[in-house]
Amino acid sequence: MDQSLSDNPYDVIVVGAGHAGCEAALASARMGCRTLLLTMNLDNIALMPCNPSIGGPAKGHLVREIDALGGEMGRATDQTFLQIRMLNTGKGPAVQAPRAQADKKLYGLAMKHTLERQPGLHLKQALVEEIGRYTPAAGAGITLWVKTDLGWTYHCRCLILTTGTSLGGRVIVGDHTREGGRSGEFAACGLSDSLRRIGFDLGRLKTGTPPRIDARTIDFTRTMVQPGSPTPLHFGHYLFAVPTPPFPSPNPVYPVESATAWRPQLPCYLVNTNEETHRIIRSNLHRAPLFTGIIKGIGPRYCPSIEDKINRFPHKESHPLFLEPEGWETAEVYVQGANTSLPEDVQLAMLRTIPALEHVEMTRVGYAIEYDFVFPYQITASLETRQLPGLFLAGQINGTTGYEEAAGQGLMAGINAALKIRGKPPLVLRRDQAYLGVMIDDLVTRDLTEPYRLFTSRAEYRLLLRQDNADLRLTSLSYSVGLVDRGRHQAVLAKQEAIAAEMSRLQKRFINPADVEGRSPAIELAHGVSLASFLSRPGAGYALLKEMGFGDGKLGQEIIDQVEIQAKYDGYLQRQYADVERLRRLEERSIPQCLDYAVLRGLRREAAQKLERFRPDTLARASRIEGVTPADVAILMVHLERARRSQAPR
Ligand SMILES: Cc1cc2nc3c(=O)[nH]c(=O)nc-3n(C[C@H](O)[C@H](O)[C@H](O)COP(=O)(O)OP(=O)(O)OC[C@H]3O[C@@H](n4cnc5c(N)ncnc54)[C@H](O)[C@@H]3O)c2cc1C
């Protein structure tokens, strides 16, 4: 019997309060949609089932972009992190990225707090087992429904599934397996079957997590300390002061607390495996589910389990392991680099071969998890599915892995569900606008053969997509769809104007060799140059300009950083802009979704099949599908042009 608990449908229902679900629910509610967030355990909101860190290369860029677009992950991290560092400071600005160690519990509480305070957003604990659609009355448009394991049905206009690793979840440790989502949660098996019945093509992936150990049983004197950043760092773009959270008292189980002046931080600790560690693992590979065939799902190559590393890199004498505290108020420590599904006794034995862990006690075993995902060729670049209009998919369900990747998709799905309800076109970011654009474009143009994770190497325009200019690239876009408020938009416009004004001043103002004579660092000038050109020289910085009386003392550091980067990388930036312009025509050339590729004369069969499968919405996206050649794109262009002309009014 269909028992509906609400007579009027919600605008948006989000299933799953993980990293994707939280962003999706907040975005659609903040854009004025009546939103319901259903999740199987309200105490596990925004849970980090694996590493306690947010950010790093490409992922840190994503978090900055999520914040610039009005998402929540950056702020929740800033409020609760244990430690933060800027990575790759020795390299160029394109690959520099913030990475924070999160207090997992506080992060989840901060996110729950924000969700519960959001007007128009309702939270309910429920396990969704089935979804579907129906047409309530003639002309009423499509409505979607979800049914819970208790038999209750909720209706909505748009539905966003963000079920993570729970879909058909199976947890594996040694030769033990059981149904489960993660960290002791249920698996969502009914929903997998429901998606298959609707006609979705599902695949199987795998990921794993390392054991957790008790900090009180670690000999920290035999570790290398990794402190946090000595200078202030944060993910959020704040108009006013960065919020400083109340800090719990230092946790006595940790010997040192890197009391950097600007904020208490907890360090991480480095140890290394050794030959004895490797011997124990090698002598138990016959009990490793990865090698006994128990594990069938495909795991991430770039995040291998320790048994996989030992097996694949036998020549390596040792592997680094980072001991990462999981929170201010807990003694649980995450052993980064020791992902494993080896039997429990082997896990403990291998850890105890490491001098600092000689007497270690595990608090939780490492495990692997296999789960279903929906092959992403079935979604469009707005994250809406083709089979079921109004249904959006975000996060691990699309085959990605990572909190940040999930949160970014959740935000875009929330925005696009709200825009769909308003009858507006979706917000689709291009590869030259955002890492979010790169990720989603990759998902809808490539065959996914392993969990997808973002790297800076995936972004051909990475010099444009830096972590330091996310707000300049994206905040106005978010303002145009009604997610960020006018104040934030005005602030970014003012920043853009200040940068442009200073760049133009630096380009018009010239200095002569005499001005720099005897200055250190010694920068030789053969003739007069603009201040901008002077800034592009090695060793020259804005601080030197100020020292020489050519700088503007009123400018804030954020403006100065942008001016320095624009001056120093002008040539590279111009080349990237030129590349973007060259592709713009293809990016803007749309392809009708109903095009029958099989009948297009001259198109190779393989290309026609690929195009049929991915159904690209633009020529540029068609050109990025593996197996579609430039010649195929040229043939497609001719057909589109012919069609356009034949429809053009005579
Ligand atoms: C064991 C393990 C190891 C991992 N290792 C790594 C790693 O090494 N590196 C990495 O980058 N990422 C790793 N991850 C992945 C990372 O956790 C995810 O990428 C990220 O959490 C995905 O976010 P999400 O929002 O898509 O899903 P999740 O964070 O998994 O959230 C899904 C949410 O949906 C809820 N839910 C699911 N099904 C239903 C349903 N039917 N009804 C109601 N609620 C439902 C769940 O309770 C949960 O709240 C690991 C995950 C696990 C479990």
Architecture overview:
The chain is an alpha+beta fold. It folds into four domains: 10-208 and 371-481, FAD/NAD(P)-binding domain (3-Layer(bba) Sandwich), CATH 3.50.50.60; 212-367, Beta Barrel (Elongation Factor Tu (Ef-tu), domain 3), CATH 2.40.30; 486-578, Orthogonal Bundle (Arc Repressor Mutant, subunit A), CATH 1.10.10.1800; 589-647, DNA polymerase, domain 1. Helix 1 (19-30) links the parallel strand 2 (10-15) and strand 3 (35-39).
How would you concisely characterize the structure shown here?
The protein is of the alpha+beta class and 650 residues long. It contains 21 helices and 25 strands. Helix 1 links the parallel strand 2 (10-15) and strand 3.
SSE layout:
Elements: E1 3-4, E2 10-15, H1 19-30, E3 35-39, E4 53-55, H2 59-68, H3 73-80, E5 81-87, E6 97-102, H4 104-117, E7 121-125, E8 128-134, E9 143-148, E10 152-161, E11 170-173, E12 176-179, H5 189-198, E13 202-209, E14 212-214, E15 224-226, E16 258-260, E17 263-265, E18 268-272, H6 275-282, H7 289-292, H8 306-312, E19 320-325, E20 332-336, H9 344-351, E21 362-364, E22 367-374, E23 391-393, H10 403-421, H11 435-443, H12 470-480, H13 486-508, E24 510-511, H14 513-516, E25 529-530, H15 531-535, H16 542-547, H17 557-568, H18 570-587, H19 605-614, H20 619-623, H21 630-647
Parallel strand pairs: 1-10, 2-3, 2-10, 3-7, 10-23
Antiparallel strand pairs: 4-6, 5-6, 8-9, 9-10, 11-12, 11-22, 13-22, 14-20, 14-21, 15-18, 16-17, 18-19, 19-20, 24-25
Helix pairs in contact: 1-10, 2-10, 2-12, 3-4, 6-9, 12-13, 13-17
The protein binds flavin-adenine dinucleotide (FAD).
Flavin-adenine dinucleotide is lined by residues 15-21, 38-41, 44, 49-51, 127-128, 162-166, 181-182, 185, 188, 191, 207-209, 303, 369, 395-396, 401-403, 406.
